[in-house]
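Page 37, top half.
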Amino acid sequence: MKGLDFYIPASVLVVAFACKLPGLTRHWRDPLVRAVSVLLLVASSVFFFAAPPTIAAVNRLTGIPNFSAPLVYCILTAFSASCLLLLINWRGGPADRTRRLSRWCTALYSSVIVAQIVLFTLGEAPVERLRDFDTYYVHTPFIREMVLVYLVAHTGAAVVMTVLCRRWSLHVRGSLRSGLILMVCGFVLNLVFDAAKFAAVGARLTGRDWDMLSTTVAPPVASFSALLIGTGFVLPLLVQRLSASWQTWATYRRLGPLWRELRPVVPHGSRSVRISWWSPADLRVTQRVADIHDGILHLDPYFDHALRDRTRAAVLAAGAGSLQADATADAAMVAAAVRARAADPEEKVIGSADAYTSAAAEGPRDLVSISLALRSPVVEQTRRHAASTESSHP
């Protein structure tokens, strides 16, 4: 169980990164996608390499006492830079300004990382400290400065992110605002972490022992903070993706009545190739639309455009809008044509010269309107009239 408070958040962040990996592969040129992926990967690395068992293992493998200290500090600095870079790309704006700010941020925090490595190389830290390195070496030249540089850089990023996220949250709504509020809470906790570290280091400099602030209070605060920040970044993107997926599945379901209405008239051999049940929603919508278009083409000789015109006029007279009248009239014509086709098993009807394109050419949105209109009383009346006509003419 030792180090579990570090490995659990690291595992959660790795899973989140794995979920983003397909998107990164497909859109690796997108700065926002890259920034999100890097943030998740760096955040998980922070917790993994900051766990005492990992610290001991890295020190042992490298043969350098406390080698993990600058490694963890550099990763923490990279995490701060990743947060700033993600926010810069997330907010958008002029491309030149975004690139300039990104380069400035990268250069600044790269300099901090180099400074930490140089300071550790110049200092001496022969005694391995797994949890209290910050306070144990606070009187050691260069090592003290390395600790302060990392704390200042981390605090600066937390202050900037807190201010920017709070300002932005006042101008947006929905999941984006919820994500920004979570991020504000996470970066406030980052400031609590930094305050605990600064207090412990300052106490040691003045001869007091407040090490528990650094070894006991700070780690769980950092864990919760990282989870809030990661959730805040991912939440709006996840909600956006789920919303798009929901809309696609809604379109697929709404096309169902029209698809089922036309299915009997399409010859079995000409139907679209069946796709697996786990296929993406957009592919299933595409297949359903293709099936509907095939059905419309097979019904073309049986369309009664006079019926459509009469139905449209009646719906308009009842107070409906133009779009609803068009959809209802098209649905009535389709329903009547299906029954006319069923009454002509030998296909004796001569095809008309006019092809039916009012629904097919408009795309899925208009097809959805027609599909929903199939349930209207006007269309049901058309079905009954067609059925009574067929029974009276055997």
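Page 37, bottom half:
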Amino acid sequence: MVGRRQFDENRTLECAREVFWLKGYGATSMQDIATATGVLRGSLYNAYRDKETLFLRVFEDFADQSLADTAQALAHPIIDHALHDFFDRAITSMTTGSPTRGCLPTKTAIDSKADGERINAALRDHLDNTERLLRERLSTDEARPRLAIPPAETARVLITMTRGIVVMERVYQDPERLRATAASLIDALLSPEPGAGDPRGRRPAR
């Protein structure tokens, strides 16, 4: 029956995710997925219709897990630590593997063969949701008084930086360089903790 799963779907989607993540959407074929998963190409087409639909199904699971991990990273009660944990999670993820796998959303966003509106919508939704989590964390009574710019703008700067460090990782392949850059940005966006003074004379965001 068309669409009926006659294979372990969870395992298949996990394997497909790793292939898309490592090779990129455009360079991945349905035969690559079939080889990696051990599922016949015809069965994949019956279940998912085409590569784009399969990718979107994979990306849905990826996005859900990524948001859960981001929320956990941002849960630290001190904003400095929360943002360091946020970047550390992202850097650890993108530098996993040999060769390193990079960032799935960013690799997809710059892939000229991944320009379908459904894929673009999924990418926007993921980035918007991640930005929302950052904005909510930055809007807390503990964090907001220490911001150099308002929470919404800070969140957008942080999201943009996470995309930029993906490119730097490709060039330098140096996780500690990425962490140092992230730490510099955090220092620029936050005033010192209460009681430490602010030698830079920066005012809290309104």
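Margin note: The CA atoms of residues 89 and 197 lie 29 Å apart.
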